Amino acid sequence: MERRLISGHSPFEPIAGYSRAVVVGSTVHVAGTAPIAPDGSATPEDAYEQAKLCLSIIAGALARAGASVEDVVRTRLFITDPTDFEDIARAHGEIFADIRPATTCVVTGLLDPAWKVEIEAEAVIG
């Protein structure tokens, strides 16, 4: 089965040896996506804005893989503070309210203390 790698803009990809997304058959696996702006600008301070940025990066990776957010079947939200959940969930719901992928939320630490959220996704094309 063909395996296609989708690169992104994260400085960690070449260091850690991973891809923004990997396409295998009709499945797209999008890596944990932190709020790292493509233009190198500062990470937004607000959890809602961080989640919107993560979801925008994911949507871009899906598009490069030949998929869209409508194809997403699972998301995983990694958040650092449970009090940010409502803002992060609001951003997630703006994209996925009608799609309703299976979703998990885990409270954990992230690599950069400025990050409040990291999101990963899986999609099935077709």
Can you characterise this structure?
With 126 residues, the chain is of the alpha+beta class. 28% of the residues lie in helices and 29% in strands. It has 3 helices and 6 strands, in the order E-H-E-E-H-E-H-E-E. The protein has a 6-stranded mixed beta sheet with strand order 1-2-3-6-4-5, covered by helices on one side. Helix 3 links the parallel strand 4 and strand 5 (102-107). Helix 2 runs parallel beside helix 3. The chain starts with a strand and ends with a strand.
Distance between the termini: 17 Å
Mean pLDDT across every amino acid position: 96
User: Rg, please?
Assistant: 14 Å
Task: List the helices and strands in order.
Answer: EHEEHEHEE
**Order of strands across the main sheet:** 1-2-3-6-4-5
Overall outline: globular
Largest sheet: 6 strands, mixed
User: Structural class of the helix and strand makeup?
Assistant: alpha+beta
Topology of this structure?
Blueprint: E1 3-6, H1 12-16, E2 21-24, E3 27-33, H2 47-64, E4 72-79, H3 85-96, E5 102-107, E6 117-124
Parallel strand pairs: 4-5
Antiparallel strand pairs: 1-2, 2-3, 3-6, 4-6
Helix pairs in contact: 2-3
Compose a concise summary of this entry.
The protein has 126 residues and is an alpha+beta fold.
Label this structure with key terms:
126 residues, alpha+beta, 6-stranded mixed beta sheet, 3 helices, 6 strands, 28% helix
